[in-house]
Amino acid sequence: MTEQIWALLPASGVGSRMQANCPKQYLKIQNEYILDITIQKMLSVSGLSGVMVVISADDAYWPSTQSYAHPSVYTTTGGAERFHSVLNGLYALKEITSGQDWVMVHDAARPCVRVSDINKLISVASNNDGALLGVPAKDTIKQVDANITLGVEKTLDRSKIWQAFTPQMFRIEVLVSALEYAISSGFMVTDDASAMELSGHRPVMVEGASDNIKITQPQDLPLAEWLLTQQKNTTDVS
């Protein structure tokens, strides 16, 4: 690719479901911040131009990270919701690079992503309308009603169901337009691919490893530590 590729990590959330005394991205695994581990995974991608980290305005932890003084790591301030933070990060990227360059938006709380999967994503996204990592559904998927009874309405066709992960990779300017449209239209998009879909784009799914978990609840922390240890003991790290 002749265009630059950047990573964008929204990291301004508080992670209330972790029931911790600090934001989850600043919890530690083997004495390293989760955020530092995730940033290092992204910086391990060959040819990456840099990482934009979106932090909260009152973040007191960021200066104590290993990434704080890294010359390829930049920061900006987040917004009310994740998609606001991503958009803020994209605006900041547009000040230092071209809108025609590419950005991989990745959850700060996904430190177990494999660099080999990121490389697959880059290859597919650059030849399509963007792409995102994910895995095909393995279990039977039920659609339930929205009330408290959770009655099953129907069984969905599992062959068409994928679980969406990150990174999700798109051209910077195209994703900016998609997020601006989603926000102005009142859509509460839960990932960047959703915004792209609303704007008529068709991003491509790229199958990645199922160990690319998002740390959300307390029980996820020891699992992530175990997964990272297993990855270190294999050759599938780069």
From TrEMBL:
The record marks R158, K214 as: Positions MEP for the nucleophilic attack. It catalyses: 2-C-methyl-D-erythritol 4-phosphate + CTP + H(+) = 4-CDP-2-C-methyl-D-erythritol + diphosphate. Pathway: Isoprenoid biosynthesis; isopentenyl diphosphate biosynthesis via DXP pathway; isopentenyl diphosphate from 1-deoxy-D-xylulose 5-phosphate: step 2/6. Its EC number is 2.7.7.60. Transmembrane segments: none annotated. It comes from the Bacteria. One of its GO terms (molecular function) is nucleotidyltransferase activity. The keyword ATP-binding does not apply. Keywords: Isoprene biosynthesis, Nucleotidyltransferase, Transferase. The record marks R17, K24 as: Transition state stabilizer. InterPro entries: IspD, IspD/TarI, IspD/TarI_cytidylyltransf_bact, ISPD_synthase_CS, Nucleotide-diphossugar_trans. Coiled coil: none annotated. It holds the Pfam family IspD. Belongs to the IspD/TarI cytidylyltransferase family. IspD subfamily. Catalyzes the formation of 4-diphosphocytidyl-2-C-methyl-D-erythritol from CTP and 2-C-methyl-D-erythritol 4-phosphate (MEP). NCBIfam families: ispD. HAMAP family: IspD. This is 2-C-methyl-D-erythritol 4-phosphate cytidylyltransferase. It comes from Litoribacillus peritrichatus.
